Amino acid sequence: MGQNQLIKGLKEKLIELNHKEFFKFLEEALEKGVMVQKIIFEALTPGMQRIGELFERGEYFLTDMLIASEMFKEAMEKMKPLIEKRSNVVRNTVVIGTVRGDIHDIGKNLVATMLEASGFNVINLGVDVPKEEFVEAVKKNKAKILALSALLSVTVKEMGEVISELIKTGLRNKVKVIIGGLPTSETLAKEIGADSYGKDAIEAVKKCKKLIEES
Ligand code: B12
């Protein structure tokens, strides 16, 4: 089977929630040397987007989203050793987390993995993180960048709250803030006083490198 057929198969089997076939395709793709980045960005990510659409249309249920996210995570675990880590001379620290009220973590973890692979020291606080915890972690680890993730429209407002907390504690000028996730945008970043926005994990790495250069 060719690379493009394997990518197509992977995406289809994820959407069909067919665990067995999905992992058969994954194994074959890895054996044939298909790039991990290609698998993540051309099969898994668009597959998850499709599942979101089907959920929105009422054709898929919450449990279906959950099954797909477990398949995604399991695939990431299998591919993690294949993601090469580059070591930087200076390992700049990024604190990352999903804001309070939000438990989506697949995209955030993908961003964390890509940042690590690019030489950043990443402190991953997990999901549903209160603003005080973000601020504390920035302070404790002398982080250069704070990366905030939100997938729900209602939790976007919490990103602004985190920035207010940074101002309140006198840390705002010590750390750059980047935001990302489905309901966020460049415009939103400006509105809430963040320094940057990234649409996906690849852009997240590019923008974080840029933030370090500017700081
Ligand atoms: C999987 C999933 C779930 C799983 C999450 C499991 C997990 N461990 O993450 C479960 C089933 C638990 C879930 C729950 C819910 N979900 Co949900 N979920 C999804 C789904 C299908 C996929 C998300 C995903 O993982 N995508 C794949 C990853 C790789 O992409 P990503 O997250 O977008 O991340 C990329 C970029 O956004 C960006 N990025 C992300 N974070 C960051 C951070 C930074 C700093 C940067 C730079 C970039 C960046 O880079 C990432 C990698 O490229 C989406 C649909 C969709 N289209 O996204 C709905 C979706 C996000 N969920 C939705 C909803 C409504 C819910 C629930 C409220 C449902 C309910 N009734 O209970 C709950 C919320 C619970 C809560 N309090 O958080 C809605 C949100 C609608 C809205 N506008 O608010 C969506 C859009 C589905 C829909 N179309 O209706 N969900």
Specify the overall morphology. globular
Named CATH topology of the largest domain: Rossmann fold
Strand ordering within the main sheet: 2-1-3-4-5
- Ions, cofactors and other bound molecules: cobalamin
Secondary-structure element sequence? HHHHEHEHEHEHEH
Gap between N and C termini: 47 Å
**The number of domains:** 2
Strand-pairing-aware structural class = alpha/beta
Low-confidence stretches: none
Oligomer: single chain
How many distinct beta strands?
A: 5
Portion of residues in beta strands equals 5-15%
Question: What is the count of DSSP helices, taking H or I runs of 4+ residues?
Answer: 9
How much helicity do the residues have?
55-70%
Radius of gyration: 18 Å
- The CATH homologous superfamily of the largest domain: Cobalamin-binding domain
Specify the CATH architecture of the largest domain: 3-Layer(aba) Sandwich
For the report, how would you describe the main beta sheet?
5 strands, parallel
Mean pLDDT score, rounded? 95
Summarize the structure.
This protein has helices spanning 3-15, 19-31, 36-56, 62-79, 106-117, 131-141, 156-168, 186-192, 201-214, and strands spanning 93-98, 121-124, 145-149, 176-180, 196-197. The model has no long low-confidence stretch (mean pLDDT 95).
Which helices and strands occur, and which strands form pairs?
Blueprint: H1 3-15, H2 19-31, H3 36-56, H4 62-79, E1 93-98, H5 106-117, E2 121-124, H6 131-141, E3 145-149, H7 156-168, E4 176-180, H8 186-192, E5 196-197, H9 201-214
Parallel strand pairs: 1-2, 1-3, 3-4, 4-5
Helix pairs in contact: 1-2, 1-3, 3-4, 5-9, 6-7
Bound molecules: cobalamin.
Residues 45, 48-49, 51-52, 55-56, 62, 65-66, 69, 101-108, 110-111, 147-149, 151-153, 178-183, 198, 200-201, 204 line the site of cobalamin (B12).
